[in-house]
Amino acid sequence: MRVTFASEPATPAHPNEDFVGATADAAVLLDGASAPAGVTSGCSHGVRWYSHTLGALLLAELTESTEPLPEILARGIERVTSLHQDTCDLSRGDSPSATVVMLRRTGDRVDWLVLCDSVLLLDTGAAEPTVVCDDRLNHLLKPSRDRVRALEPGTPEHAEAMREHVALVNECRNRDGGFWVASTDPRAAEEALTGSVPAEKVRAVALLSDGASRLVDRFHLATWREVVGMVDRYGPAELIRRVRRAERSDPDGKRWPRGKPSDDASAVYCTHLNGHRP
């Protein structure tokens, strides 16, 4: 398997809370969930610590184990929880969290897992790639998010709407009827979207954090097929470059209302999954 990737923080001064890693037979992408400004957590560790610690554990497990991906993810969440459960208050529901995308080639199969709203694109040569994204988060929080985005940042009304939005996120996170993300509860792994396909049918696979996928699902400046063609021809860094160009053209979010002017952006592109390029 051949892997290329690019990952970039939202701004040069901002630590990148995404994690990307790969071996000859596996790739992992995690998108750490940043807390809004002014929101505290019962955990003394940062989001970057969480996403990078869990990501490294998952990648190591993928190189050693052929177990189902949800089992590997559940064990990884348990191990990270054990690293800070004695020093942090993990009972408040506001501990660091991350989305997860996992890809593994085992023999003649390609297995994948997607937890929360990062994106996996599976290119089998059809007219359109298969798009895998757990969009429960977006459906649940859209009314609250739209209210925040409609208000002027820095106003009391915006601050109050943001507090209500954060409370709703905490209320819905990792609960039945809500959305699921990697944090402290290994049961989240059972809620991930998973699949397996013959390696011979896969031309390429792309893993995208929502900071990279926003060129399609937020800005509507490309199709998923165009994204696959773009990263195939020019590499993942080109996708991020075009996202940044769009963000700079709309710094105040008037054309494309969004929670962050810029976000950490990561893209992974995997080919030769059957030992050769179709």
Automatic annotation (TrEMBL):
Species in which this protein is naturally found: Thermobispora bispora (strain ATCC 19993 / DSM 43833 / CBS 139.67 / JCM 10125 / KCTC 9307 / NBRC 14880 / R51)
Residue ranges, compositional bias (Basic and acidic residues): 246-263
Q: What is this protein called?
A: Integrase
Q: Where is this region: Disordered?
A: 245-278
